[in-house]
Description:
With 483 residues, chain A is mostly helical. Chain A contains 15 helices and 4 strands. Chain A has one domain (2-137, 144-479).
Amino acid sequence: MIWYITIKEIYHNLTTLRFALMIILLPLLFLANALIYSLGGHGYTTQINAHNRQVEEKRKHIKAQADKSLAELALKGPGEIPKLPSRLTFCADGTDELVPRAVKMISGGSSSRSGQDRTEDYGWTPPWTLEYPLQSKVGSAMQRIKIDWVFIGVLMSFFAILFTFDAIAGERARGTLSLIMSNTVSRGQVLLGKYLGAFLTLTVPLVIGILMNLLLILISGNIPFASSEWLRILGMVGLFALHISVFIFLGLFFSSRVSNAITSLVWLLLTWVCLAFVFPSLLGTFVGNLNPIPSVDEVSMRREAQLKQLGDEYRPFGGSESKLRQAATAENPEAARLWATYFTKEIETKTRFNDGQIDQQFGQVQLARDITQISPITTFQYAMEGLANTGIVGYMNFVKQARRYRETFIDFIKTEDQSDPESLHIYPVKEGLSQKPVDPAAVPVFTEQISYRNVLSQVGLLVLFNLLFFIIAQVSFLVSEVK
Amino acid sequence: MHTLWLVIQREFVSNVLTSRFMIGFIVCLLSTAVAVFVQVDDYEKRLSGYNTAVREAQEETRTWELYVDIKPKAHRKPNPLGIFNVGTENFGANTVTVELSKPIFEFVTFPIWLAPTQKRGSDNPFLAMFLTVDVVFIFKIVLSALAILFAYNTISGEREDGTLKLVLSNAIPRDIVVLGKYLGGMLSLFPIILVSLLVALLIAFASPVTGFDSNDIAHIILIFGVSLLYVSTWYLLGLVLSVWTKEAATTLILSMFIWVILTSVHSNVVTFAVEKFPLHPSKSEQAVLQPAFDVWDQFRKERDAYVKQRGYDDLKKSITWEPGTVSTGTGSGSMSGGYFLTESYSVSSVSKADTSIFQGILGYQEQLRIAYANKAEEILKEPAEAREQNAKFADALSRISFADTYHFAVGAIAGTDRQRYNDFIADSRAYKREIVEYLKDKKAFSSRAWFSTDKGAAELTDLPVFKQRRLTLSESFSRASIDILILLAWNIVLFMAAYVSFLRYDMS
Lengths: 483, 508
């Protein structure tokens, strides 16, 4: 019986104006998406080339330092660490232009002092710290809605509303609802049939659109796919289905609630506008007030003040009050130890501020994301970004791994140093470490692990939304009047 | 006249009594209130950041003793109307450091050492990934939806109900019916816009930092007028579709579809496509650096040639020392980021030196340096100009949708559009020219205070201060005039279409 209702619904839907409109719009958008992302500027090819160049530079940098000495490598750091670009930006762009593409673990420049009374001449390399440069300082991002699959998904939820607003209210107005009910069919079955009808009407063109889109992208040959990508795309299709289904239930709920199809559409439309535009944006920006953090300028001012204080304490550039008048040499371990204390403090201060600031920013973004997930549309968007490995969460994971790599690298230096009996084992002073070259191949390499575990929570949330709306639609239909 | 009034009244009452009026009113009011609340807070932050920056810059000014030291800053003042339309308020640089030897330009993707244009005072760059919502955004999306919801059943709905026949069987001309329905619908939308805007103003006024003056209020009234025009466009569109279609449901679906296309699909597709397939492909920012480097090589050559022509191997040699003075006391420092070259000179035991020729050469050299900085600027601003041209092209295509035309119009009136941002960069360049003129007037380049304080420090009390001119109402209006005209044209066309189609409407 359910199947009969479903078939009838589908036939009914196929002949409507909204179906015609959808069938025109969907392929157009998928076509635009495929063309823009596969052939447009700054596409995957450009990004992967830039990435490979950076990886190559990093390899060369490590080799150059390692060939000189372990000490050189220890102080210069492993270089700039690029984040792997995602192949699936066309699915979920995730405001990629705001997300930094690399972190830095490289020492900038060198310092020296000379020709002063009672101060030995000395040149040193200020040790590296993990820095998080921003993608673009000026902030060019004005236009933030991208024509990716997520955007198409948002439009699909709009169509879900258009297909369901009159599903029950319309039949009730025409008087056909009581005719259906006079048969031996339960209300649950009617609702399910209507649901399936709308679901199939929406998803079949969607899947066809997606296939077309993928075909175009494959033909263009600019974005290569591996088997894992196919799996992720399959997951995304699942997300589309979950997302559309939420809105079908929502539509059925309003449709059974009100007597007039138009009133139901008015309610649905305003709900949709709130869920798609108003809530996510307002709540997102509101977090800035909810959980304020110091501005970038303030943090950098405090950081500079502390570094200056440290400098005033030790005076590395000499002077009568300098604690570091003696140069660090292999023969003078005492002085080397003093320098090590200074450098360690400097690294510690810089790291505290850099890590602290980015953690605070991440905290704010995380809070904003958690709050905005009350909208199923946003949940869908985050899940898509998670699967595509774009957006801020991908960067957060990357930063976490970079921090782990920082530890690994320092551990490597220290263990390598222990094996050299001539070394003083004083980190991070050049003269206190092994002067022998190391095998560049032995230096740990950064490999990015991509985790999709975060997506599970969003999928769970979407399932929960489905259940919730299913129940309220069911209950509201059960208690509603047939006439 | 009486019948027209009757139609208007009837339309108004039938709209106001519906649930959509109440829901729409509440949604519009609440979201406007929250948006203004968030934006006022944002404005306060921007303003305090601006005030701190200005204060710091003033303190810095007092420390300058030599002409060569001066590095005045141009700060972009936050616009109070940004509360209603954020636009470019949080976008781009807000501080330009004017250095005589440095070109003023903006790089967006390529980091530049000691960049002249900087952005200060953002507490979390990542929060920019959430769309900013302001009053105009809410009007653009929510009010347009409401206008359609009010208009879709004006004709087709009445036809279905059978009341249209009854209305027309009276002695009412059809044109009166159309006009009455239009005016009645607009009359019922009017209080929603008015109250929302008043609430917005009230919240904005409640904040201690927002002092709107009469100029601002005039601008806000103009924004209100344009918003009415915008809503009227949507209402007329709904009316036309209502005449053209037979069933109210069809009208609604068709108009909702157009609504989605015009408010969220069209401009995004167009802008994104232009970004990926730019009409004016620009050189990468990295690529223009090399020619800018070359400019400075030319400068060095021309400068050295001049010094030689004056008969010296080196600028420092042009100083004549009193007999017996050990002339080791000339130091020079130079700094170059590649795209700029600053050099400073310090002459110790300057009291024993005759620096008149030195000063003369400096007077030539520093003005030459400024000329070369301008040459470098011409090269370095290319990418930003190409970007701007592409953006203009995308804007022109976006204007097909009147939702975006409305957004551009309000941006131009509020002074928060890209044009106004470019004005800021242009103004800071003009400010630099003003500073140069000021120094020329004082003969500062060839003065002793350029490099030494021994005969008095540089006189900088009347150094020009950067001022960004505010636009008067008529200027704002003329900037927005094209967009307003487009909206007006849409209104006229749609009204004519509704009018003509209704006159020929087949009642059977």
